[in-house]
């Protein structure tokens, strides 16, 4: 069965530090992969997505993610975190056929000055 | 253009009452999803609509939950005889579909926060 694991429930980083949020998935074929961000009281906003091609994808707000098939991972990175990046981050897998998307349980990011 | 809208933004109800939550997807998006997000939890899939096809109801937690989508556009999620454990944020999302059958990214509404007293 398909699933998504975000091992880190909560991460705290200093402003200006680098960030990596982990995401591992279980899926039989090449998945469609997404990272979303949710600010308090808001819906989810897409940061970036991977369907095929270059395994390093660039997104909005300076985020990037790398698809590693051998590790079944799609980790999100940012070289320098800003205070406004404090939010909840969700990794998701979408099938290349079928209906259902699978979301991880999220990683809460706190940014300290 | 307009994004996904949901109403009401907040709903407080008493245990045992019925509630209706509305979702207005992006125009032209054929797929519509409902999710439930409980405090500190990820997104729990509830139901999915694609065009005029029969909905995928596999995520509905009980027969108290139902949803419909009229005219392939607006959707209403109904919870009958609400229970305190139904308290959560209910999110709606819509998306387009590739010719391959796969789905593009989902666009989410701001959610409806339901509180059952």
How is this structure best described in words?
The complex is a heterodimer of chains A (113) and B (117). The mean pLDDT of chain A is 91. In chain A, strands 2, 5, 6, 10, 11 and 12 form a six-stranded mixed beta sheet that branches. Chain A is built from no helices and twelve strands. Chain A has 113 residues and is mainly β. Chain B has 117 residues and is mainly β. In chain B, strands 2, 4, 5, 8, 9 and 10 form a six-stranded mixed beta sheet that branches. Chain B has a four-stranded antiparallel beta sheet with strand order 1-3-7-6, with no helix packed on it. Chain B starts with a strand and ends with a strand. The model of chain B has no long low-confidence stretch (mean pLDDT 91). The A-B interface holds A 32, 34, 36, 41-46, 49, 90, 94-106 and B 4, 33, 35, 41-43, 45, 48, 50, 56, 58-59, 91, 93, 100-103, 105-111.
Outline of the structure:
With 113 residues, chain A is mainly beta. Chain A is built from no helices and 12 strands.
Mean pLDDT of chain B: 91
SS-based class of chain A: mainly beta
Radius of gyration of chain A: 13 Å
Report the portion of residues of chain B in β strands: over 45%
Low-confidence stretches of chain B: none
Instruction: Report the order of strands and helices of chain A.
Output: EEEEEEEEEEEE
Instruction: Note the main sheet of chain A.
Output: 6 strands, mixed
**Proportion of β residues of chain A?**
over 45%
Helix and strand arrangement:
The complex is a heterodimer of chains A (113) and B (117).
Chain A: E1 3-5, E2 10-14, E3 19-21, E4 24-26, E5 32-38, E6 44-50, E7 56-58, E8 64-68, E9 73-78, E10 87-94, E11 102-103, E12 107-112
Parallel strand pairs in A: 2-12
Antiparallel strand pairs in A: 1-4, 3-9, 5-6, 5-10, 7-8, 8-9, 10-11, 10-12
Chain B: E1 5-7, E2 10-13, E3 19-24, E4 31-37, E5 43-50, E6 65-69, E7 75-79, E8 88-95, E9 107-108, E10 112-116
Parallel strand pairs in B: 2-10
Antiparallel strand pairs in B: 1-3, 3-7, 4-5, 4-8, 6-7, 8-9, 8-10
